[in-house]
Design brief:
Oligomer: single chain
Distance between the termini: 44 Å
Largest sheet: none
Number of helices: 2
Structural class: mainly alpha
Length: about 45
């Protein structure tokens, strides 16, 4: 029963994410002076 609940929750979240992605489109890159890749490397350091 628990595995079925987990599978149902994951499936529901996936469908919801696809629906939001379809309605809103892919996320826009942040309009800041730093590039996301630079922020990521800085966070790693």
């Amino acid at each position: 029963m628990r595995k079925r609940l987990v599978a149902w929750t994951i499936l529901t979240c996936a469908l919801l994410a696809v629906a939001v992605w379809t309605v809103l489109g892919p996320p826009e890159p942040p309009a800041g002076p730093h590039l996301p890749s630079r922020d990521l490397t800085a966070a790693v350091r």
